[in-house]
Write a structure and sequence with these properties.
- This protein is an alpha/beta fold and 335 residues long.
- The chain folds into 2 domains: 3-187, Rossmann fold (3-Layer(aba) Sandwich); 205-323, Rossmann fold (3-Layer(aba) Sandwich), CATH 3.40.50.
- It has 9 helices and 18 strands.
- Bound molecules: aspartic acid.
- Residues 10-11, 51-53, 83-85, 108, 110 line the site of aspartic acid (ASP).
């Protein structure tokens, strides 16, 4: 059965124009540049031609819906070309609802399609190989870049311009791609697929950043803008300023769920400190979200609010519990 290639835009599809880079290259041209890997049959379609920084949450629901529609046809897997800026969010939502053994693999590029040395063709060829690889079955939605594939949960963009754009701090990749060989490194541990209605809007959840001396103004502005839930991009292991801690206690008591993540890219948050620290936040009912990035946590909380509007936190906790187990490293293979 074929692999389906679905293009959405991003640097992989972009060419230089008078105003800057524009994502104009269709899927068929991306595939022609990558070459179809030996033994594969690839079908193509185009969903959008935009930079991923311009995608809305509604676009993301549309993308995941389209991926599911393609999987419902007879394909062995789906590859999505996508901008790198928000790829970690798209792959996460795709994974949250994914209940199929066949892989969905997102990829993109750091250098444009018309660059003299583009990285997109190799990334796309690798992603197609991963989508067809038995080792990728059951791994959920994956992000394939620069010779490695990462599980959705925990993957982050870590470089703005260099070709190794992604990493999964503290977790590592799950597959390595060398030419035709796709080598398993680890099995991701995934939470249960959420029965999310992709036709309905996701409730608004905002990420509020912490910085030295931050007051509660942004937090309150988010709620005033209609946020049904809040994710804190907290200091260190999950600490905030006393002003934000006091506002969080008030919000949680009023029924607004609050998740705590870190602005540090690696490691989990923990209920350690009082005086505005994670111990106060946990005592007051905020949920410490492990090592989940604030952006992935935002989608988890929004999905949980959609699935269980009156009691979203058990959904969040279930998902966090599943994903905090370390994925098994595959014996004898260096990660
Ligand atoms: N820098 C981005 C990319 O790599 C732009 C985007 O996210 O579309 O594609």
């Amino acid at each position: 059965m074929p692999i389906h290639l679905l293009a959405t835009g991003g640097t992989i599809a972009s060419r230089r124009g008078p105003g800057g880079l524009a994502s104009v290259t269709p899927a068929a041209d991306l595939l022609a540049a990558a070459g179809t890997p030996d033994g594969l049959v690839v079908t193509t379609s185009d969903l959008t031609t935009v930079g991923s920084f311009a995608l809305t949450t509604a676009d993301l629901r549309g993308l995941v819906t389209e991926v599911r529609r393609r999987l419902a046809a007879d394909v062995d897997g789906v590859v999505v070309t996508h901008g790198t800026d928000t790829m970690e969010e798209s792959v996460f939502l795709a994974d949250l609802v994914h209940d199929d053994l066949r892989p969905v693999v997102l990829t993109g590029a750091q250098r444009p399609f018309d660059d003299p040395a583009p990285d997109g063709p190799r990334n796309l060829a690798d992603a197609l190989r991963v989508a067809a690889a038995p080792a990728a079955r059951g791994c959920g939605a994956l992000l394939c870049f620069d010779g490695l594939a990462f599980a959705a949960r925990g993957v982050r963009k870590v470089e703005t311009l260099r070709s190794g754009a992604f990493a999964a701090p503290g977790r590592g990749p799950v597959l390595r791609v060398d030419g035709d060989a796709v080598t398993p490194l680890a099995r991701p541990v995934r939470g249960p697929a959420l029965p999310l209605d992709l036709d309905a809007d996701l409730p608004r959840v905002d990420v509020v950043p912490l910085y030295l001396g931050a007051d509660d103004a942004l937090l309150r502005a988010a709620v005033a803008a209609g946020a049904a839930g809040i994710v804190l991009q907290a200091f260190g292991a999950g600490n905030v300023t006393p002003a934000v801690a006091a506002a969080v206690a008030e919000l949680v008591a009023g029924g607004t769920p609050v998740l705590v993540c870190s602005r540090v890219p690696s490691g989990a948050v923990a209920p350690l400190y009082t005086g505005g620290g994670g111990a106060d936040l946990a005592r007051d009912g905020a949920v410490l979200a492990g090592d989940l990035s604030p952006w992935q946590a935002r989608l988890l909380l929004a999905a949980a609010l959609a699935v269980a509007p009156h009691d979203p936190l058990p959904v969040v906790r279930d998902h966090l519990a599943a994903g905090t187990r370390t994925s098994d490293r595959v014996d004898g293979v260096q990660g």
